Amino acid sequence: MSGAGRRLLIAAAAAWLAFVVLAPFLIVLKISFAEVMQGRPPFTPLFAWAEGALLPSLRASLANYALLLSDSLYLDSYLSSLRLAALATLSALVIGLPMAHAMARAPQRWRPALLVFAVLPFWSSSLIRVYAWIGILNDDGPFNALLLWLGVIARPLAILNTDIGIVSGLVYSYLPFMVLPLYASLERIDPALLEAASDLGCRPAGAFFKITLPLALPGIIAGCLLVFIPAVGEFVVPDLMGGSDTLMIGKTLWTEFFNNRDWPLASAASVLLILLLVGPIVVLERQGSKRAEERS
Amino acid sequence: MDATTRILGGAFCALALLAGAGTAAAQSAKEVYVYNWSDYIDLGILDDFTRETGIQVIYDVYDSNDTLETKLMAGKTGYDVVVPTSPFLAREIKAGVIATLDKAKLPNLKHMDPSIMQRMAAYDPGNAHSVVYLWGTTGIGYNVKKVAERMKDAPVNSLSLIFDPAIVSKFKDCGVMMLDAADEVIPAALRYLGLNPDAKDAETIARAEAVLMKVRPHVRKFHSSQYIEDLANGRICIAFGWSGDVVQAKTRAADAKKSVEVAYGVPKEGALMWFDSFAIPADAPNKDHAHAFINYMMKPEVIARASNAVFYPNANKDADPFVSAEVKEDKSIYPPPDVVKTLFTITPYDQQSQRVLTRAWTRVKRGK
Predict the structure, then answer these.
(1) Which of A100, A164, A222, B2 pairs as cysteine with A183 (C-beta 3.0–4.6 A)?
(2) What is this model's ipTM?
């Protein structure tokens, strides 16, 4: 590709990112320094033009951030979101890895069909699927009926309206995001490597941990990020499948925005959430590129 | 990390292809966008309105005043008719997001019941911005058989059923639900304590919070629409909810023939009385069609059909002959005059008291 064409492509991508990522973020950042006000929009302007002044005076307030840090409600929400999202990511990995492994090892002609099956749930509305799970996991739903019939449990398990309910919903909703990148990285592994390991006397389990897993690591990291990041900020699943006593930052944001009508505080809380999520990714990225440099 | 990035990109491409882009519906000239509460109309009314006027109705629903108000404050909702509840409407009028009605376009105003419109004028001076759609009370819905099994002579017509820990704890195993609406439950708790339900100061709200904290362990969930289904299916015993919603649960239970019997009690201590009114957002794109819609809804036979379908009383003095006997004679829908006397109303919360209220509510929901 010519230098000019390349630059044009990069410029287009940068413009797109500025439009869909940077601009909304800057708007949220701006509101986070404002104060609540009755009216439309319900917050004070950041710049005020005094009579006859050439330059506007800045009216930024850090009060929202101070409140976020001083009130344990917000810290608890962040921690509880991180905990539930981490639990969901781990569960998705444990379920997704064998699925992706089986898909990657299936005969070539089956793979497209299996891939379609993995993403098939996306063809219906996620809300409808969450409602379906409410029906399945209910006290009188088929899941409890099956366990009762098998004699595993004596009385229906309370899954809905608990943290387990939230994690189940999250795992189900985001599983395809885990399976797809895992499949992509597992499929690329040359079967000859595993044959060589076997020829040299390595057991299949050993070969899995020594060859497959390290080679699939980029896929594992990608899958975990794709599940973890949206799961932290998830609102629908905790609202419908969780209990009233579970705090998650998505619900706390909703409360600030809709119940308190406090847009500035809600904005400040989401800015902090973004920092919280971007920080670890930047660290991972740094380490990844350092390792790549060392290798080359 | 390079490989990770490549795989991420690949995965996104696959997803983007599968997701498929939504297509915007073609804009037709004559339409009205209505944003109303869930389970709150006979949908056949909308078809008849279109048949009579040629105006298409695009109908969306919500289940909390907060959702509606946030959209109104953000502006450009695209809706032409909204249905806020009285205290919220008062605040929205003050914020300037509601248009003044052109009463010349609403000849059917002559059918409205002046006594109810007068009560509503406390929120909307001169009834300049709104027309009452339906009204109701907030009280106790319960599963008749399951409550009786667990407690003989349970006080089903008293707030002590849900606010006295010794009583509500008896129903924990079969399920107790409350509205997820601080401005409904906290005033009721204040009324239970014999305090002013309209109190806005932090100390008084804290006393209601203390009452709720003691019963919190026995409440399964706070939610403002799920209890209709759960009451109807016998999944819960008690719901503190809106009158007509409980009666809807009762009807659904009867239709399903699951031998679930649901009833509604107006607490003898007094219940919150509220009015849901039609209003037009200040920036509504089709104000003329909005007036036509509101005017149509004031036809006695039309509004009666809504009452018959959703079991809430209307504010139309000429509609009674069209309201079915089943609805008209049900005291949980149309409370008798001596009960009406015990009902109370509340005024809007300002920013400061709203924050106090919401924080108290968040603590109650978490249970700590």
Answers:
(1) A100
(2) 0.71
